[in-house]
Amino acid sequence: MMRKKRRSSTENGGAASTATKAKKSRSTGRHPKEPVSEETNESVFVSFVRKAGVTLKHGGTSNDIAVDQVVFQKRIQRQLQKSPRYPGIIQEFITGLESFIENPDNFRNCLLPCVPQSSDEDSSSVSSFQESLLRLLLGIEMLQTLIINTLLEKLPEFMIDGAADGGLSIPRMIINQLKWLDRVFDTKELAVKLMELVSVAPVEVQCDIITSFPEILEDSQHNDIARDLNSLLQENTQLTVPILDAFSSLNLSSLLLTEVRGAVMARMASVQLEDLPIVVKFILHSVSASDTHEVVCNLRKKLELEQCVLPPVLQASQSRLKSKGAAARPASTPAAGSSQDSVTLILECIKSAVRFQKTVSEAWLKVMESVEDVEDHKVIDLLMLFILHSTNANQSRRGAERLLKVKVRTGLIQETLLQKTFRDYAQVMRGYFPSILALAQSLLRSPDPCLVSFGGHMYRQSFSGFDSYCHQEVVGSLVTHVCSGVSAEVDMALQLLCGLVTEKPTEMALYAVFVKGILDYMDNLTPQQIRKLFHLLSRLAFGQQQQGAHIQDDMHIIIRKQLSSTVPKYKRIGIIGAVMIVGSMGAFRPKIEGKGKETQNGSLTQETLRQVTALLELVKSSAESSPEAAALYYDELANLISSTQLDPQLEEVIGVGVLDDFQQDFIVDIGPEKTGSFPFPACAMYKLDGNQDGIAINLLPLLAEDNQSKGEQQNKNEQKGPSPLCLSPCLRLLRFCEEKRHKGDLEDIDGLLGCPLILTDMDVVEKVESLSKAERDFLCTLLFHAINWFREVVNGFCKQNETEDKMKVMTRLQNITYLQTLLERVLAATPSYVPPSSNFDGESTEGITLNITGPPNRAKKDGAGKKRKAAGKNSSEGDTQPEEATEAEESQQELPEKEKEKENRPGVSLTAYRAFFRELDVEVLSVLGCGLLSRTILDSELHTKVREEVLLGPAELVFLLEDMHHKLEFSLMPAKRAPFLKARVDKSVGFSHLQQRSSKDIATYCVQLLPALCTHLENCHNHFQTLLSDNNGVVDGPATDRQEYQLMSSSYQLLLQVLNITFSWSGFSQPGLRNLLKKALGVLAGRLKQGDAELTLEQLVKYSFEYLLNFRSTIPSLSTALCLSQLLSTVSEKGGHVAAYREQTASLARRFLSQLWVTASGERERGNKFNEALHTLLSIYLEHVNDVLKAVEEIAGEGVPELLNAAKDESSTSWPTLNRQTFLVYYKVLMAKLDKAAKKIPAGKTSDNTEAQSEKLLTWNLAVRDFHILVNLVKVFDSRPVLIVCLKYGRLFLESFLKLGMPLLDHSFKRHKEDVQCLLKTFQLSTRQLHHMCGHSKISQDTSLTNHVPALKKSLELFVYRVKAMLTLNNCQEAFWIGNLKNRNLKGEEILSQRSQGSDDDDDGDDDEEEDNQRLPLPEEQSDDEAQESDSEGNKKNNTMEDVEEDDLSEDY
Questions:
Q1: What backbone torsions phi and psi does residue 15 show, to the nearest 5 degrees?
Q2: d(Cα 54, Cα 116) in Å, to the nearest integer?
Q3: 153-159: which pairs have CB atoms within 8 A and are 24 or more residues apart?
Q4: Which of 36, 250, 573, 988 is the most exposed place for a label (fewest CB within 10 A)?
């Protein structure tokens, strides 16, 4: 039987070699009896399979296959089909298969790949890899469905415990049999059965089945199975990952994909954190370009990263548990960073989508840009900005940087959000550290203080939250900023380094060498920056912990080297550095537990105190050779004591020493008259105390002795007497020492407030012209020192609360203002005088000297200017404007000459000398709040009472307000960057003390002063109201005191300027300072509406605006009117109905422009300052008016004709500020605003309807008409400045028309032929006039005019060809023809050139009138003749320009 079986096997297609292999295989088996028993009872399945070439094995051995897989399948199919029992034999085959796989081992073998039989004879007949037996049978069409059913029925048996002996998952192996079949004959039925299995299977099997759907089912079933999976996703979130994995591989329709994506998005809140990256990846990678914005917007709303991480407290508690060994239950306690790992994966998915899908990155930027509320900004926004910046695309990088700056500048992304992001997502942020560092660098280089502050916060958080590598990079970047040389950048970088040293001294000590490297770049640092640098270095080297003690020796060496230098600059650096080291070494240290050996009750050790005092002695001795160095030493020590809490022992040592030095050097007793070789007789002046005896400041003798010693060069280094330069600095140091030692009480030195100075009788000023140069210089120096002494006295005692002290302070202010008037007169007689220094921390003398020499030369300049104007008047025929300008200048100079003749007391302004006066402290401004001060003085018998009153006068008010204005300009207004290649001017001279206070402190102090400022503003208003009522509505009445009028007018203007700077401060937009803004507005609103109810910001702005608007009736000058308009505009921007405020501001500006401004002497205001104010005020009016084009037409069409019809010195009746002297101002503003308004007209689009096109055409008609009026004014006002303005803005307007107007004509030519015709006809007249101006510029040979000609001619030619293109587009090219337009000057006279002279006879008849009348008829179907005629004129004009002037222009340019 066995032999017969083998023969049949061979006859059924097997080769002899196959039988041999089978025989050899059977002979080598370990259990030869088992095959015999099976063969006797073998089923159809076993028989057919064996005959087809597969030998079934048992146990752990895989089935053998002896033939190729295709051959096997064909043999099985042939056996089934040729069987007599077909088709019943198929069911018998399946029954045999089912019975065979009842044995788990047999089933496992059938699921595993078959092993090819090895044969030496034929090794290439069977491939090395073979499929499993079941998978081979699945490839047979007649068996596939039955076998699939058998497998799916078999699968539930292994769901619970599906792992085989080898650890393989039987369910997964069953599913794998169904993957990647060449063909599935009943896909729909298979899908249904698989979904049924999914509904009952455990999660692991469900995941295997779901992820296999794309590999099992055909594309036709993808949409159906996706719907089923989508429904399953709503029911079971545990299957989110496999379902989304399947979705990613399914071929779905766009509608279904959108539906699935929406369902997934809706379920994001319930998805497990570890599954969220897969969800985000699916959403972003399945998005289409049209849906990107909506999908990203929804994803941003759903992605709540704040809920993905534990609060910091729980994270800290978990880390503590972990550190204590709570690893016994690792599964129950998740790692603290697991949530951050998931967030990192989410961001990586987003980063991948952003990097490879441009639409996604653009959508993220647009979505974040559309968020407008602070509360709506989330952590994901900040992280997305870092992701976008980290991608390689330049567009994303620039867009992220731009968006971050906009968000920070508008206050939408605040430092609290940045802090929260770093605190909760430090591990996530670490991966984007390069982008964070690059953004911080960019922000720190910005001129906007808000961006600089945010960039500094990014640096600070990066240092606090990241590892040591990041620490090194942050410090290195900050050091680079310090060495950049940009002032604001250096200041912020040094501030950050100081903050890091204070907060993280141990970490910063590692990088002390980095910071020390800045010492090589100190030449570019300001004194204040050098202070900060030495402050942080000394804190590192000599701080309480002394973490950076390794650089102490280097610091000592540098300081000693600089102190011994003979170069003043390096000596100053040495003094500043040494004082900073003293501050760090001698700082007060609270008692530290556990370090009792080093400290005694928290005070300095004797050794440390000895070192500090020795360093002070070294600095003092090295500064003795130079009075400037000694004064700097006093100032720096005073700054240190005022800003640092030193050890009491050290304070006592310094205080006693400076008191002794001051008494010995500068104080004398009042006694008999001082005698000596003084230039002027000495006497005690300005004594406020009633007693006859007392002390005095020995100023004049010291100054005389100092001058004498300077004259003796051989004794220069042996100078023993103190220098008067040190007087004020020494007083400042003494005052701070006394405040520290006596808790702010200055009773021990209050005698200095009222004590006199040894000066001379000031009647000598009346005869200053008769004095010698040396005597005048001596008198000037004496006055400077006296003023500086009083300024320092006011600094010291302004904070005293006693009424007597306050009265003396106000009296000293009166002394200052009086001495300044004397000094102005003396300086006028001493033009080459250089004052003594009063600010010793910088080299400011050279720069100021150049400014001082300016006023004496101004008269020569003006004189030369008049001569040039006169020459210009004679050289240009019919040129009327230079005459008017000359008359204006002459009238401007006649006024001061008349005043000089009346007063016969010349003076100069002290503005240029501000750097030579001692700086007033901010606290001095508190005097503004003092009203009428009075005290009662009793006589010796206590009977008679004398009442003494002191009031802040107009001169003192102006003095304080000018100082306040300078301080606010320096602190609150953004610093303007100097132009390229322009010499840098140190604007910080005179603000050394102010620099040490933040802008926030200054703004807060100003807000505290607002009630006093409002009181003074109301007093000025009442003063001028009374003046107007007394003089019947005019200010130049006979009873008007001109000096008082000038002072009150200056006070009025300064008060408005101070308020405007205060409210313009950009810091109010910062989140923490909104309450300060409300408080400031509340002060203004409270003057108008008092009440306890708290007002909203919009209400505060409304009442503040109304309050300020009430001052409009008493404005004394145009400059003051401009200040009020600017203040109203600033306040209106803080909130509320902007449109209403704009209308009121425009109405107010119109009122001021329609007012005739006169001075107290009755003459009309004029001059450069008046013109500048008029320019700005007119700009404000045109910027705030609703219809700019209408306003321009009103001024140019009504005001200018009124001026032309008026007398020579008269003004326009409707615009009194418009006269022949101010016409240029008006003309320039009108042209500039017209061009700006034209640029705002929307460009024409093809999609515009007829109404929109008509509206835009009407707007352009108005603009072109205004342009035509303004250009034609050149025929009357033909001066060179007017021509320059017209050429410049004429080209700009023409370019705007080409860019925005011509596309509109392209689309609206057929619909609105009449409007287009009118527009082009008007515009053609303007371009012809511009062409004439080009010809005039050429023959005048004025380079200031001809510089504008080439660009203008280019634009004119472009206009010609653009009109031709418009006609061609509308099938009217026949209307375009070329003629000749001759070059003419402003008067219309023909300009003859070399080329035109030859053909002069031929062209004589072609004048402008002929050109206007020459027209070519258009085709009958075109009815817009005139429009195209005007176009042809433009062609003719510009082509002539090309032909006639081409050679000439090439010669000139």
A1: -90, 165
A2: 9
A3: 154/101, 154/107, 155/197, 155/205, 156/197, 156/200, 156/201, 159/201, 159/202, 159/205
A4: 36
- Dihedral, CA of residue 1145, residue 1148, residue 1153 and residue 1154, to nearest 10: 150
Measured in degrees and rounded to the nearest 5, phi and psi for residue 1421 equal: -75, -10
Query: What confidence category does residue 848 fall into, taking pLDDT thresholds of 50, 70 and 90?
Result: very low
According to the model, what pLDDT value does residue 892 have? 38
* Structure token digits, residue 1315: 């409007």
Tokens describing residue 1210: 């008269």
Which pair of structure tokens corresponds to residue 116? 């090819």
Spatial CB neighbours of 481, under 8 Å, sequence gap ≥ 6: 441, 444, 445, 489, 490, 492, 493
What is the distance, to the nearest Å, from the Cα of residue 1061 to the centroid of all Cα atoms in its chain?
20
Residue-wise pLDDT for 595-623, tens only, equals 444 444 557 788 888 999 999 999 999 98
H-assigned helices in 217-311: 222-235, 240-249, 254-266, 276-285, 292-302
- Alpha-carbon distance 1241 to 1256, whole Å? 7
pLDDT digits (tens, 9 = 90+) for 732-785: 999 999 988 888 888 888 889 989 998 888 888 888 888 888 889 999 999 999
Do 808 and 797 meet the contact criterion of CB atoms below 8 Å apart? yes
Residue 814 token pair: 């009166």
* pTM of the shown model: 0.74
Shortest CA distance to 1266 belongs to which of 1353, 1206, 1188, 1356?
A: 1188
**What is the Cα–Cα distance from 1149 to 436, expressed in whole angstroms?**
47
Which segments of 1353-1451 are extended strands (E)? Answer: none
Q: Which tens digits make up the pLDDT trace of 670-723?
A: 876 666 677 888 888 898 876 667 888 988 889 988 888 776 644 444 545 788
Give me the mean pLDDT over the 1151-1169 stretch: 87
Distances (CA, A) of 751 to 412, 667, 694, 746, 1163: 55, 11, 9, 9, 49
Residue of 441 and 1340 predicted with greater confidence: 441
DSSP per-residue letters across 195-219: HHHHHHS-HHHHHHHHHHHHHHS-G
Sheet holding 757-759, edge to edge: 667-669, 695-697, 757-759, 683-685
52: tokens are 């087809």
With a cut of 90, say whether residue 895 has pLDDT above it: no
Beta strands (DSSP E) in 365-438 are none
**Backbone region of residue 426 per phi and psi (left: phi > 0; alpha: psi in -120 to 50; beta: other values):** alpha
Q: In sequence order, which residues have a C-beta less than 8 Å from that of residue 811 and are 6 or more positions away?
A: 688, 950
DSSP annotation of 1418 reads: P
Residue 260: pLDDT over 70? yes
Other Cβ atoms closer than 10 A to 1218: 25
User: Using CB atoms within 10 A of its CB, is residue 1040 exposed (0-12), middle (13-18) or buried (19+)?
Assistant: middle
Task: Give the number of other Cβ atoms within 10 Å of residue 87's Cβ.
Answer: 10
Q: Residue 876 gets which letter from DSSP?
A: S
| Closest C-alpha to 527, from 922, 1001, 996, 968 | 996
CA 288, distance to chain mean position in Å, is 34
CA 639 vs. chain centroid, Å, equals 33
Contact indicator for 252, 222 with CB cutoff of 8 Å? yes
Chain-centroid distance, C-alpha 1324: 44
Average pLDDT over residues 533-551: 79
Q: Which residues pair with 169 in a beta bridge?
A: 163
Element spanning 529, H or E: helix 527-542
CB 1292 within 8 A of CB 1284: no
